[in-house]
């Protein structure tokens, strides 16, 4: 997260935010919307006909807020690579380009590395040289080429500024009734044109991340206390890994009472956590969750409540 906050505070000249709005349902409501006489509140018909889905892929320019967006029937790897290539080629400059995007596997695959290399006019490392995720991410993030990719952390889509534009577009366009994908695409394109000509403005980031780590610790403690049986083992493991990272990197920034509450929650729900882990059918997932839980408890051993 902090590398992105640093990037936003000192943005490069060409900084773009990319994301996808996938699986948009195309709904044709059976009766037109109405408005109340006094408050003009919109009343939507609850019955509708489904007319398929649509995907919107968009880039937000940090400098001026302008948007480059395309509507597509899918968001497969080929579609992403096509849109990314078209965006890069639409920029009349040979200067370095920075892109912020999420950790979708498509964005970290070898095929994307090849496209980035081609558009950066450099030789792409062989697939053997980029044979794991860490190597590909390091290559995409490296600053010694024309195109530099910055990835948001897991569950960090809120750090991607194009999400603000998607929220505006959703209220202005997607809440309407449509009979076809073509109708949605036409209105999205019209809105993009209107946005870029009349409404576009920079979105500026002011949040500095202060206190976020402690909020994450408090939140996980409450999840353990209230919803442990509703957690998927994958999510539980990720949350425990996050706690380990926070403990190792930001220990002094978290109040002692918050660490104690987390440990109390872990110990009180230990039986349920172990039961959830043992129910996991996947051997690798089960072992990973078990090891992560044991490591987290060992780190918090000084805060384990004494048995009476």
Summarize the structure.
The protein is an alpha/beta fold and 308 residues long. The chain is built from eleven helices and seven strands.
List descriptors.
five-stranded mixed β-sheet, Nucleotidyltransferase, domain 5, 7 strands, Transposase, Tc1-like_DDE_dom
What can you tell me about this protein's structure?
Pfam families: DDE_3 (PF13358). Helix content is 48%, strand content 16%. It is of the alpha/beta class. The protein has two domains: 2-199, Nucleotidyltransferase, domain 5; 212-303. Strands 5-4-1-6-7 form a five-stranded mixed β-sheet, sandwiched between helices.
Set down the secondary structure blueprint.
Elements: H1 2-9, E1 15-29, E2 34-35, E3 42-43, E4 48-61, E5 67-72, H2 77-90, E6 97-101, H3 110-119, H4 133-141, E7 147-151, H5 162-174, H6 181-199, H7 212-227, H8 233-250, H9 256-268, H10 270-279, H11 283-299
Parallel strand pairs: 1-6, 6-7
Antiparallel strand pairs: 1-4, 2-3, 4-5
Helix pairs in contact: 2-3, 5-6, 7-8, 7-9, 8-11, 10-11
Pfam families: DDE_3
Domain Tc1-like transposase DDE: 42-176
Protein name: Transposase
Q: Based on the structure given, which CATH architecture of the largest domain is correct?
A: 2-Layer Sandwich
What proportion strand? 15-25%
CATH superfamily of the largest domain: Ribonuclease H-like superfamily/Ribonuclease H
The main pleated sheet reads as:
5 strands, mixed
Strand order, sheet with most strands:
5-4-1-6-7
Give the termini separation: 41 Å
Radius of gyration: 23 Å
CATH class of the largest domain: Alpha Beta
What is the averaged pLDDT score? 85
Output the structural class: alpha/beta
Put simply, the count of helices is 11
What is the general shape? globular
Low-confidence stretches: none
Helix content: 40-55%
Helices and strands, in order, run as HEEEEEHEHHEHHHHHHH
- Give the count of structural domains: 2
CATH topology type of the largest domain: Nucleotidyltransferase, domain 5
Overall number of strands: 7
Organism: Candidatus Magnetoglobus multicellularis str. Araruama
Pfam families: DDE_3
Domain Tc1-like transposase DDE: 42-176
InterPro entries: Tc1-like_DDE_dom (IPR038717)
């Amino acid at each position: 997260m902090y590398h992105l906050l640093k990037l936003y505070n000192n943005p490069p000249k060409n900084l773009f935010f990319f994301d996808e709005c996938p699986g948009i349902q195309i709904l044709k409501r059976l009766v037109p919307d109405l408005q109340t006489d006094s408050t003009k509140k919109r009343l939507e018909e609850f019955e509708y006909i489904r007319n398929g889905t649509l995907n919107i892929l968009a880039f937000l320019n940090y400098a001026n807020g302008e948007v480059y967006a395309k509507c597509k029937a899918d968001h497969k790897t080929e579609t992403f690579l096509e849109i990314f290539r078209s965006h890069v080629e639409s920029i009349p400059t040979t200067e370095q380009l920075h892109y912020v995007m999420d950790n979708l596997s498509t964005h970290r695959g070898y095929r994307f590395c090849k496209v980035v290399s081609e558009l950066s006019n450099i030789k792409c490392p062989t697939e053997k040289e980029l044979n794991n995720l860490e190597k590909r991410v390091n290559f995409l993030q490296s600053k010694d080429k024309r195109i530099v990719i910055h990835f948001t952390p897991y569950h960090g889509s809120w750090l991607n500024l194009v999400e603000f534009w998607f929220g505006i577009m959703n209220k202005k366009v997607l809440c309407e009734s449509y009979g076809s994908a073509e109708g949605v695409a036409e209105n999205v394109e019209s809105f993009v044109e209107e946005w870029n000509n009349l409404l576009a403005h920079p979105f500026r980031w002011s949040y500095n991340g202060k206190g976020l780590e402690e909020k994450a610790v408090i939140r996980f403690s409450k999840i353990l206390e209230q919803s442990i049986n509703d957690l998927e083992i994958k999510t539980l493991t990720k949350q425990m890994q996050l706690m380990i990272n926070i403990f190792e990197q930001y220990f002094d920034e978290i109040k002692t009472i918050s660490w104690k509450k987390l440990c109390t929650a872990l110990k009180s729900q230990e039986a349920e956590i172990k039961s959830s882990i043992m129910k996991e059918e996947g051997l690798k997932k089960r072992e990973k969750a078990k090891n992560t839980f044991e490591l987290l408890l060992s780190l918090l051993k000084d805060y384990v409540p004494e048995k009476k």
